[in-house]
Amino acid sequence: MYLLFQPGGREGLPPRRLSQQHQQLCKAMAPKKAKKRIEGANSNVFSMFEQAQIQEFKEAFTIMDQNRDGFIDKADLRDTFAALGRLNVKNEEIDEMIKEAPGPINFTVFLTMFGEKLKGADPEETILNAFKVFDPEGKGLKSAYIKEMLMTQGERFSQEEIDQMFAAFPPDMSGNLDYKNLVHVITHGEEKD
């Protein structure tokens, strides 16, 4: 399941306000506080995260648990991929994700899996992988598509917020957003040289 957030077109979405689903999946993935808590955590998975982070993971789990049976299964993963715009996910890919879990994926297992993956995770790499779900071939993200997603999904951006983002990170000649530079600024506070 964590493969939704790994290279090769199997990532989640960038944090912020793409949609509630995307925000919940990604927002909790890279906070530095979570990394620090995980490093010193005891065996109780719930002690690895702050309460707000656990709530965000719970919301992400609930969104992914499409059939509301308390477990994430192959059908739930396929539906999640479809919601992310990936309709042609191979069965092998989904099987690989399910095999990552030690058994049926309830919320505790889900939280444990993310806790283990976050341990030592690089926030910049995690966010880059999230953007790559929209760019599996590495050709770039069309700014028009990003604008549409930000203005129509979840906590929607206003036109002013969109204008500010594109003023700070203008699209290239092909109309693509330089999301690598955007991620660098998000994680480091300054542009790449």
TrEMBL record:
InterPro entries linked to this entry: EF-hand-dom_pair (IPR011992), EF_Hand_1_Ca_BS (IPR018247), EF_hand_dom (IPR002048), Myosin_RLC (IPR050403)
Subunit comment: Myosin is a hexamer of 2 heavy chains and 4 light chains.
Gene Ontology MF term list: calcium ion binding
Key words of the record: Calcium, Metal-binding, Repeat
Organism: Columba livia (Rock dove)
Protein name as it appears in the record: Myosin regulatory light chain 2A, cardiac muscle isoform
SMART domains documented for this protein: EFh (SM00054)
Domain EF-hand: 52-87, 157-192
PROSITE patterns: EF_HAND_1, EF_HAND_2
